[in-house]
Amino acid sequence: MAQATLYGKVAPGEFYRKAGARLTEDADPSQIAHKVGTAERTLPLLQAYHSFDKAHVVMLCEEGLIPSDDATAILRAFREMEATGWEQVRRGGGHGLFSGEAYLIEKLGEEIGGKIHLGRSSGDLNSVSARIGLREKLLNVMEAELKCRQAYLKLAERHLETVLPTYTMMQQAQVGTFAHYLVAWTLPLERDFERLGGAYDRTNVSSAGAGIGTGSDFPLNRNRTAELLGFDAVCQNVRDANAGRDFVLEALSSITILMVNVAWATDTIFLFCSNEFSFVEIADRYCGSSSIMPQKKNPHSLMVVSETASQLSGAMSGMLTNARSISGSIKAVLQNFDATVEAINLWAGIISTLQVNKEIMRQRTLDFWALATDLAGAIVRIRSLPWRTAHQITAILVRMALEQGKKASDIDSSFVDLAAREYIGEPLSLGDDEIRRVLDPLRAVKARTLIGGTAPEEVQRQVRLCYDLLRRDTEALAQKQKKLDEAATRLEGAIDVILKTD
Fold first, then answer.
1. What's the pTM value of the predicted model, to 2 decimals?
2. C-beta of residue 269 within 8 angstroms of C-beta of residue 302
3. Are residues 299 and 196 in the same domain?
4. What is the pLDDT of residues 430-442, one digit of tens each?
5. Which one, of 97, 90, 104, 102, lies nearest residue 122 by Cα?
6. In 374-485, where do the E strands start and end?
C-alpha cells in the first residue's frame, strides 16, 4: 500500500522545505527562488536536470540501492513525461532543480518518487547541471569559431597579392597584404580553440556523488553516473567537486579572450570601411542607416560584434569578484556563451561577404611613404652603408618630399642624392630604375620571404597550415560531440534494460 505523501498534490513552490519537518514555517518565496531556482533561471539547465535524474536512478538501480520495481516505476514515469513533453512539464512545475523529484512524488507518491534523491544533494544538482550546460555552450562556441576561421581563410586565398599599408599608432608603417592580415587574425583563433578545448576537458568532469562536499555513505558508483552522462572523468575529491568553481571561470575566460581577439580584427575593419579609408565595404545586410543623416551607412552588425567583447570583459571582471555564487548565476554565465556564438556567426557572415577595394589599398601604399623602410634597405644593400645612416638619409628625403608636396611616385635618383648630400656630403647614385623597383609595393611584399612574412608564397603556406589545423580541430570537435551522443544513447539503453526486466 502506497505511503501517503507529506506534500500531497505539489503545486509550484510548495515542494521545497514545507513546515512540519525541521522547520516550523514554510520557506519564504525569495528563498525558494534562490535555492530551487525560478523558472527563468533554471530553464537553460532543464535538460541537464532531466539527464542527471535518469542517470542517477539507473545507477541506484544497478547498484541495488533502490528496488528494481521502484526504479522501473520512476524510469517509466520519466518516459511518460518525455512522451507528453518533458521540458514543458518541468518548466510548468516551477520546482527548478527538484522538478524531477516533485513530478515523481506527485505521480507515484513519496514512497517511490522520494527515493530519487538518495545519496544526492542540491550541491550535486547545481554542479553537475552547470557542467553539462557549460560543456554544451563550449561546443557551440567552438563550432562557431571554426566557421569564422574558414571565412578568414577563404577570403585570404583571394587576396595573396592585394597590397595595403599596415599601421602603427594609426600612422602608415610598411606594406603588407590583406591575406597576411587575415592569417594574423586566424592564428589567434586557433589558440582560442585550444583554450576552449582545455576548458571543455576540465568542465567535462563529473561531480555527481559529491553530495555537499563529503560524498555519501551509500556505495554510489560515481564512474557509472559519469559514463551515462558523457563525462570524461570523475572529480577525485568530493569537496573540490562540490566547491570548485574554477572550471566556470576558465570557460568564461576562454570566450573573453576569444572575443578580444575577434575585436582586434573588427577594430581594423571599422577603420577600413570608413569613407576616409574605403579599403572595404560591408554588405548592406549588415548595415543600417541614420534617422537624421540620410547619407550614412552604419555598420551596425560590426558594432554588435565589437560590443560583445566589451560586455564579456565586464562579465569576466564581475564573475571573478563574485566567483563563490556561480551556481546561483549560471544562467547569466551561459547567456554570455550564447552572445558569443551570435557575435562570431555574425562576424563570419560579415567577412564572407566583404567587398575589398584592391586598387584603393594599393594606391594608399604610395601616398604616405609606406615604402620608406624598403628604400633605406636598398641604400644599405647597394652602398653598404650602416642601417642608421641609410635610415637618416631616407628620413631627410621624406621630410624634403613632404615640404615640396612630392609623393613616392615623384622621387628619382637625383632627389635621393639631395638627401644624401645633406647627411653624408656625397650622392648615392642609385639610379632611377632602382628607385622605381624599390618603391613597387608588390615587390616589397614579395621580398619578405622569411617564415611568417608577407610574400604571397609564404602566406599561401601559412594558409595551408591553417587549413590543416582547421581540419584537425573540426575532427576534434566532432569526436567530443560523438562521445556525448554515444553517452545519451548509452543512458537510454540502460533505461531500456531496466524497463524490459520488469
1. 0.91
2. yes
3. yes
4. 999 999 999 999 9
5. 97
6. none
